[in-house]
Amino acid sequence: MPSLLQTVFALPLRGLTWLGSHGTRAVAAIVFIAAAVPPLGTLLRPYVTEAILVLLCISFMRVDLVALSGHLRRPALVATATAWTTIGVPVIVGLIAHATGLADRVPGLSLALMLQSMASPMMASPALAALMGLDATLVLVTLVTATAIVPFTASLFASLFLGGMLSISPLALGLKLLGILAASLLAATTTRWLFGTDAIQRHKQPIDGFNIIILFIFASAVMGDVVSDLVARPLFTVGLAALSFAIYFSLLAVTTLLFRRIGTERALALGLMVSQRNLGLMLAATSGALPATTWLYFAMTQFPIHLSPYMLTPVARRLTARADRSSTAAAGGKLEP
């Protein structure tokens, strides 16, 4: 009997390990599979909130508490990065949307952009940074602090810039965000207590594989209508896709430039985090009660989010290699008489 049980569990475990070992390639493939099979979107859309809760739980479960406490003892950089992603980005987007009259001309797109800017970074950002060879610890610490305050900042900016565009009040939005994050943190803490940190670390690749499956569920739910929208409104849909790429890489470039003094590699890691916004958290908080244009823009953002780690990995590896050579040269110089 034990051998039978081991066989039953070994097969899915090997499958998850294989999936997790493919990292950025699997993440990139998700977006195309999700878009190519629209019925999956219809089937999985009711489970968006559950998928987000699981993704949040996995991310909180894998937090390196030692590294977290180490970075928190040097809070200046973390505080600056947190202020930029939670306050600076939504203020800039909100002012641009107001100045251009976007809320009056295309209210669904204006709502999408504001929700995107108000969202905390994606919980998968540290894992993606690690897959690219970047400083995942700095990303993780900033992610934790930004996520902790986003219920309050999102409520504030919703009241300032969104008016009556949301189906729920700014206060209700903040409370729902707080509840989702608290529930995920409680589940993650319980999981760590039951299985232990060592077991979680040993099963890193199967957990990565499971994380990719949940990402696929979320992407399918969000992208279920992409093909029909592309057929019905091709120019508008392609335009939203181009806009999503432009915003993604603008946030990436501006953040990297703003933090370049800490080193290009670490600045790029922060740029990756800031450009990847947790739109799923906003979908869960609003129960998906959003205009069709908002849903379509959220679907288009999945392309840069899922493709950029694969596209940027060669750049990240060159920066990491250059930093390693510089460190080696500096150490060698110190050893010379």
TrEMBL record:
Q: Which UniProt keywords apply?
A: Membrane, Transmembrane, Transmembrane helix
Q: What is this protein called?
A: Na+-dependent transporter
Kindly indicate whether the keyword Iron belongs to this entry.
no
Write down the superkingdom of origin.
Answer: Bacteria
What residue intervals traverse the membrane?
Answer: 75-97, 109-131, 138-161, 173-195, 207-224, 236-259, 279-300
